[in-house]
Specification:
This protein is mainly alpha-helical and 456 residues long. The chain contains 26 helices and no strands.
Length: 456
């Protein structure tokens, strides 16, 4: 059987290669097509532009416009929509606006997706007023907003802190006959949860169930996480049970959301049960999930199991991040294994992690709690970057060791650096100086603190 190459078949081949990120092969197919007398059309170039935007760069994609014009092919709305989407994806606001302006000057009419992309762009850059003006342009240009338009509006308002406006818009749309899909409900529920409005989120979740739509794992996980954040543990666990009874396939994120919350609430047994279920079900874990499990093991003092997971991460082709190593260092410090923590910190440095502040803070606290205050002081002095937690931890531990004069010097250097420290910490230093017979030094210390605060 002989197949004749046509423009349609050419475009199918190119789309297939572009989808699998094989852009060189896609370009080769175009050359072969031209040799066989099958010329690329606007669809061909639009497919290429979209792929270059996604997998190479917006500049590389934009250069294809010149090739189109050389071939006598006029770019269309889809061409510019792809370029706009690429610019927005790469957070290029000015380039997005330039492309939109170029599109208008070329006499190409924007469609609803052009405006949707532009609206999303403004929301992404924290410009809700400009985004709303784009929505007004949709109406003024006699275009019909699609469900995605309203989803972008609701999501943008939620993410920019206009939760009441988003909720009001949702209700207004419902009154005018708009029937929300699951994605709209999920956007609104997510916004309400992030704003800490658990009651309203639960109400919308109930409405979703009554609408005939079925909440998915994302819906339940979002509300469950909000429950845990609001310390409504029982309500969160009820949602978990509901998900299990409905037979949802859990991902690592859902399980680790539960585990992390239970650990924070010191419900270690329940966290362990959840972890065992996760491992038993053979769920593929991402790095965040591994970090959560490592944290749980460290919390229980199971350091060998935690370090074993590090090997598992590397065998799975993933790379540990600075949070992974910091959790291990903190666990070793809390277990009193300061030498092990120091070795792991050195290893972390050799791996090229540029910011180890949290790990250093763990080391300071661990050294102090192990009674190695002098070493902690040397370690503190060697640190290039310090934050208020660094100073607070050292001052509090110096006070516990009844080294109040040393604590006062560290505290004063903290205030001179322009950092804030708890008043209770300052009070502990002052009380300690007075109780150990250094009243005059306590008064001088108080004056220096006041002066330092005025100057900084």
């Amino acid at each position: 059987m002989v197949y004749i190459l046509s423009s349609r078949l050419l475009n199918i081949c190119i789309a297939s290669f572009c989808k699998s990120k094989q852009l060189e092969k896609a370009e080769a197919v175009i050359i072969d097509g031209i040799r066989l007398g099958v010329l690329p059309d606007v669809v061909t170039y639009n497919t290429l532009i979209d792929a270059y935007c996604r997998f190479v760069s917006i500049d590389a994609a934009y250069s294809i416009l010149a090739r189109m014009r050389e071939a006598g092919i006029i770019p269309d709305t889809i061409t510019y929509n792809s370029l706009l989407a690429g610019a927005v994806r790469n957070c290029l606001l000015s380039q997005s606006l330039d492309l939109f302006e170029e599109m208008l000057q070329a006499g190409i009419s924007p469609d609803v997706w052009t405006y949707n992309t532009l609206m999303h762009c403004f929301f992404k850059f924290g410009k809700p007023d400009e985004a709303y003006r784009v929505f007004r342009d949709i109406i003024l240009n006699n275009l019909s907003p699609c469900p995605a338009t309203f989803n972008i509006l609701i999501n943008g308002l939620c993410k920019n802190g206009y939760m009441d406006n988003a909720f009001g818009l949702f209700r207004n749309l419902q009154r005018h006959g708009f029937v929300p899909k699951l994605v709209t409900y999920n956007i609104l529920i997510n916004g309400l949860c992030k704003a800490g409005r658990l009651k309203a989120a639960s109400t919308v979740l109930k409405e979703l169930g009554e609408s005939g739509l079925e909440p998915n794992a994302i819906t339940y996980t979002t509300v469950m996480k909000c429950c845990f954040r609001s310390r409504k543990i029982q309500q969160g666990l009820e949602i978990l049970s509901k998900m299990i009874s409905k037979g949802y396939t859990f991902d690592g994120f859902a399980y680790c959301t539960v585990i992390a919350a239970l650990v924070k609430m010191r419900k270690i047994k329940e966290a362990n049960d959840c972890m065992e279920r996760l491992l038993r079900n053979g769920i593929e874990l991402d790095l965040v999930s591994y970090n959560t499990l490592i944290y749980l093991f460290c919390k229980e003092g199971k350091l060998e199991a935690a370090i074993k997971l590090l090997d598992e991460i590397e065998k799975g082709g993933m790379e540990c991040d600075k949070y992974t190593h910091t959790i291990i260092i903190d666990g070793l410090c809390k277990a009193g294994n300061i030498e092990g923590a120091q070795r792991h910190l050195n290893y972390m440095n050799t791996m090229g992690f540029d910011s180890n502040l949290v790990a250093f803070n763990c080391m300071i606290d661990g050294l102090c709690k192990a009674g190695r205050i002098d070493y902690a002081m040397k370690f503190f002095e060697s640190m290039e970057i310090k934050d208020s937690f660094t100073y607070t931890s050292l001052v509090q531990n110096l006070c516990r060791a009844r080294r109040f004069r040393c604590a006062s010097k560290v505290l004063l250097s903290c205030v001179k650096s322009g950092m804030k420290i708890f008043k209770s910490t300052q009070r502990a230093v002052l009380d300690g100086l007075y109780s150990t017979g250094y009243g005059s030094q306590a008064r001088r210390f108080r004056s220096k603190i006041r002066l330092a605060r005025l100057l900084h």
